Amino acid sequence: MPSTVRDHRIVRRMASLPRSIMGGISRAMGDGMCLVGIGRRRTNQRAHFPSQPQDHVPQPRDHVVVPEEWSFLESFEQQYGTKHPFFYACRLGEAMKLAEQEHKFLLMYLHSPDHPFANVFCKETLCSELVTQFLDVNFVCWGALADRGEGLQMVATLSPATFPCCVVIAPASGESIAVLQQLEGPLSPAELVEILQRTLEEQGVAFGSAKAKQEEKIRTDRRLREEQDAAYLAALQIDKKKDKLTNLSSRERVQKPVESQNSTNYGRMGTNSTNVTKQHNKVNESSGEKQDKGIANKGSESQPTQILIRFPNGERREHTFLYTDKIQSIFSYIDSLGLPGIGNYRLISNFPRKAYGVDQMRMTLKEAGLYPKASVFLEPL
């Protein structure tokens, strides 16, 4: 295959993203990434837009309004079939967030259907078995039409000299992306895989160190949480011992007057037996009332409170606590679930809005206003 661009050296530069795309990235982070059409194979990916067989020439049909997320995939599969790399049918921001979570680079393909090189590149290179398998394993792939929507915005941002255009992108902070490689013009399958493999090898070191830092941060947050749990449990044991000693002292103070009164009554000669019996009954009634109150108090302390916990990915968990439990108990329960991606966080109650973090760990659920029923949202920090 002839190639107009042969100098494909690694180029690392920063490119500022349009505000509309940045807004999409913010929504992807806040909404837990509502990716469209993520399936195992392309045949299961698009239930609403039936694909055409490969080499089939599409017939004229009535105009159908296709969502922007599907426009590239609809156009591409009509002309080239369903055997191609796994392109995520979603917004660019969602694809970038997914690449960051999977610790992979993003391969962006900007498709210009009318360009003279597009047909040969898509049929012979992009849809080849070699390229398809390589991209599915090593990249998160996202495609867009170069003349509309986010594809048009990225063409304005990256300013490719010709098409087809493939861009390797790494996540970056702020309103920018790190462009690691920008391939323009037709390439053979072997050439494309070789260049992308070299990009992975040369840029993967820096990407791997960033991944290692992120994993170390997760481990640090976990250790901090475990230390907080241990300190909380130690303090809880101390509180229980204090309560036990206090209860013992109270019982001793109640029992001593009863014993003294009984010995005095039985020690007096000539005391009317009826009066002794009455006084003894009064003491027993008084003791019985105190015991009943103690049982009532003990029952009130065991009153449950239902806590509904909502996670950023939309998942919900409900758990029963005692209203005398501390806020720390909710954190301990969440950590015990072992859910992926849960690092440092705080809890937010919906109405009235309150934040519960390290400073509120020793508050009881009743003191925190989470009794008898409450809903909280887990907010990552």
Automatic annotation (TrEMBL):
Residue numbers spanned by region Disordered: 246-302
Cross-referenced Gene3D superfamilies: Glutaredoxin, Phosphatidylinositol 3-kinase Catalytic Subunit, Chain A, domain 1
Identify the domain of life.
Eukaryota
Cell wall biogenesis/degradation listed as a keyword: no
Which GO cellular component does the record give, naming just one? endoplasmic reticulum
A molecular-function term among this protein's GO annotations? ubiquitin binding
Q: Polar residues bias: where?
A: 258-278
List, alphabetically, the SUPFAM superfamilies matched. Answer: Thioredoxin-like, Ubiquitin-like
KW Magnesium (keyword) present: no
Note the coiled coil stretches, chain numbering: none
Residues forming the UBX domain are: 300-378
Start-end of Basic and acidic residues biased regions: 246-256
Family annotation (InterPro entries): FAF1_2-like_UAS, Thioredoxin-like_sf, UAS, Ubiquitin-like_domsf, UBX_dom, UBX_domain-protein
Biological process, per Gene Ontology: ERAD pathway
- Which of UniProt's keywords are assigned here? Ubl conjugation pathway
Please state what the protein is called.
FAS-associated factor 2-B
Q: Which organism is it from?
A: Cajanus cajan
Taxonomic lineage of the native organism: Eukaryota, Viridiplantae, Streptophyta, Embryophyta, Tracheophyta
